Amino acid sequence: MDLFTHVLVGYLVSYGIVGFRPEYLAAGAVAGGLPDADILFFPLRRRFPLLRHHGITHSILGVSLVALVGGFLVAPRIAPGDPWLYFLVMEAAGIGHMLGDAFTHFSVAPLLPFSERPLELDADRAINLFTLVASLLSIFLLGFERDRVPFAWYTLTVDGLLIFYGGYVSLRLAGRWRIGAVRRRLPEFSVIVPTGHPLRWMLLFERREGGRLRTGYLVYRLGRGIVEGPNRVDVPLTAAAGAAGPVRDAAGALERSYPLARRTSSMLDDTYHFARVAPTVPGGWAVQWYSLEYSLLGRAASVRVDIDPEGHLSARPGWFRIPRPAAPG
Asked: Domain residue spans in the chain?
């Protein structure tokens, strides 16, 4: 979950606890974002693994220590108030941050340092453009309304945001429950990937065996069922000896292009990916191998392999638009 949403959720959680009391709202908003300060520990994470991102600062112990120090030692010195209330809102906001990350496909270990057992719901993307923009606009709106509109309008805005984010979480959890049911019916597709669209999900599989990559995906839309796929690709991991000459069909284009695409970008070994192939000039082909995880607004981290009529290949990586129609499966 992005930093702006964490801060906003901390603010909203604090508002739900103490109402409109600015000093506590500010403390809750800061505490909502503080766990991500662990990026400052990056140089130390190899020596002290607990200081890794989503490490000790994203645990109940870490959140509680921050709330104790902030609530009893720091916040009352900045703005006079009840230390116990400061502790309460900072604890709640910190736990909200931890649960917000666990809500996505980035896991946290809430019982560190006593247990590494992860908590991960796979219900949303870690960075979702939809919630990022909504949170930025909400923060701007709350700041704009302050001292400019009647207080009742302000509280109505905050109540509306509580309903909006509560509804969004409920919608995502409903989708996660339904895609889980689809996965149980299609056990081959074992990996759940939420997309940036609140109603769309992907199910993936990938196996590397016998020197070949076998991968596939389907797209599920809440309320409509499977809307795309299942699509599958089966290609060699390395180029076949003596492979040369014209490529006669789409299957051949996929097989010839993949080894070169792998050499061009390590992204293909680091993420789940797929390919789409289309004819260009007579006898020529364009194959786009693209990440199923790193995508946004119809584009994805990709490698495009062009095959000319004589069978010569050239490849270039980039952030390309995902072509249509779907690759043969």
From this structure: 3-148, 238-329
